[in-house]
Amino acid sequence: MKKKLFLPLLLLVLIISACGNQATNDSQVSPTTDTSTNSDTAADSNTGTKTYQSESGPIEVPANPKRIVALTNAPNVLSLGFTLVGVDEWTNTNPLFTDKLSGVTVVSPEDLEKIIELEPDLIITGSDSKNLDKLNEIAPTVAYTWGKLDYLNQQLEIGKLLNKEQEAQAWVDDFKQRAAEVGKEIKAKYGDNVTVSVLETDAKSFYVFGNNWARGTEVLYQAMGLSMPEKVKADALGPGYYTLSSEVLGEYVGDFLVISRSSKGDNSFMKTETWNNIPAVQNKHVIEIDTESSTYSDPTTLDYLLDIFKTGFLG
Fold first, then answer.
1. Class of residue 186 by CB neighbours under 10 A (exposed 0-12, middle 13-18, buried 19+)
2. Chain-centre distance for alpha carbon 107
3. Alpha carbon distance 53, 35 (integer Å)
4. What distance in Å separates the CA atoms of residue 172 and residue 287, rounded to the nearest whole number?
5. Where are the beta strands (DSSP E) in the chain?
6. How many Å apart are CA 108 and CA 187, to the nearest integer?
7. Are 114 and 105 in contact (CB under 8 A)?
8. Which among 86, 198, 233, 286 counts the fewest CB atoms within 10 Å?
9. In what order do the strands lie in the sheet with 42-44?
10. Which one, of 304, 295, 112, lies nearest residue 198 by Cα?
11. Integer Cα distance of 199 and 253 in angstroms
12. How far is 214 from 291, CA to CA, in rounded Å?
């Protein structure tokens, strides 16, 4: 629900908060396409702050934030061992993070009053979020553009923001090695040209995914180096996903099929003749993943999916 900020007391709080963050606002510069490097982040040991090179320019943020509101990228933050005081509703309903989010307040960019009450020292959000200026008056706000960075560099960037770059880099290096080894084992067992498709279904349609649309696509196609069928490559690789009717499913399914589905959804399609005539289904080359647990590309999700794929392909 949208909240209206007409209460005098609330306006007074916003004004006081804005004054306290004036130095942050003054540090903003024109947008840049540069991503930060080690030299872009300078810690100030006297004030407990550092300058972080955000997409919109340098911004003063806490060197060691304690009260983070993550309106986006919450799984990346949680994967680095941080706790949150505020989180978006989608992460809150993800089964992989239930234990870590017990008691954490669910908020959106429109919930300014609730966010103020949480007294955050750092806010993370998307560049397309509403109320960016007002959020920055509450606390230093770092906004990321979805898709601007790939899944590994996004984790590294969160690591730079939170003074956990070494930990983020260590995970990236380890994950790439582990995933590549699994990919080699799969090719050794089924051939270098083995193909896999990733499908998801809702109540009305099916969707086939390219190589960067979560649901394990980054793991399978990028990290493990597996191939997608030519028809999937033609229709889904560019836009990221492609909508299908059930009648043409078989045309988009490779040697293996990863199907993302909700246990709460209508899965009667799995009893149809069309489904059971797909060669991958007949060969028992179907790997099921839970939709609610698979819509992010953070370390926790990627490690979870890598384990599923290793078992699904190799037994």
1. buried
2. 17
3. 7
4. 25
5. 42-44, 49-54, 57-62, 68-70, 84-87, 105-106, 122-126, 141-144, 196-201, 206-209, 241-244, 256-261, 286-290
6. 44
7. yes
8. 233
9. 42-44, 49-54, 57-62
10. 295
11. 8
12. 10
The span from the CA of 305 to the CA of 61, in Å, is 33
**Chain CA centroid to CA 313, Å:** 24
Angle formed by the axes of helices 165-190 and 299-314, to 10°? 20
In this structure, what token pair is assigned to residue 90? 């989608």
How long is the chain? 315
Cβ–Cβ < 8 Å for 198, 208: yes
State the CB neighbour count (10 A cutoff) for residue 308: 18
Rg for the chain, CA atoms, rounded: 22
Per the structure block, which two tokens stand in for 248? Answer: 């043409």
315 residues of the chain, pLDDT tens digit each? 333 333 333 333 333 343 343 333 333 322 223 333 333 444 444 469 999 999 999 999 999 999 999 999 999 999 999 999 999 999 999 999 999 999 999 999 999 999 999 999 999 999 999 999 999 999 999 999 999 999 999 999 999 999 999 999 999 999 999 999 999 999 999 999 999 999 999 867 899 999 999 999 999 999 999 999 999 999 999 999 999 998 999 999 999 999 999 878 888 899 999 999 999 999 999 999 999 999 999 999 999 999 999 999 999
